[in-house]
Amino acid sequence: MPSLSSTSIISQYKTSIMNIALFDFDGTITHTDTFTKFILFAACKRRTYAGRIVLFPAIMKYKLGKLQGRDIRKKVYYFAFKGMNEQQLRIKGEQFSKLAIPNYLRDTAFKKIQWHQQRGDIVVIVSASLDVYLRPWCTEHGLDLICSKVESTDGTLTGNYIHGDCSGITKKRLVEQRYNMSDFNTIYAYGDTTEDNELLSLADEKFYKYF
Predict the structure, then answer these.
(1) What is the pLDDT of residue 5?
(2) What is the mean predicted confidence (pLDDT) over 108-117?
């Protein structure tokens, strides 16, 4: 009777216990809203000042609960960056990733990410925030990423996202497109707002406002 090699046995064992951990970013891993911080960091001052006036009615509707987060984010992003050179924004994103994000991290959340990594779990950041600054940060820390991706034409930003705002049901849909959830022994998910409900619904072990 043929025997399995030790490498094959270990490989099958690792596959059988593979886990995945899905983390929201803003408010879960960080203690603040990095989307707004990045807008103020990267948008030109003229647009920032004008945006406070033009978008004031929409911002007030959002604060009063009459406008959803995904809608205000799209309006702010469109106003701030439509027509901007994509490469320039990505350079800003690299700078923001290195200079700003470390100041906003929750130490307990980052330690939990490291705990999952040490166990051999796949760790995925699933966020409505922008790929231009989340991608460099995730690459630095060995994390997978699903998020709002900026759209451009001939190197110029259109003001739209490629797959729409990555929140709510879109988070769940994009995770399921990327991964076969039945491949995992245990699915963990961490979130902090109602926009994470659908993401949390994927999990065997779900943590709401855990940190």
Answers:
(1) 45
(2) 97
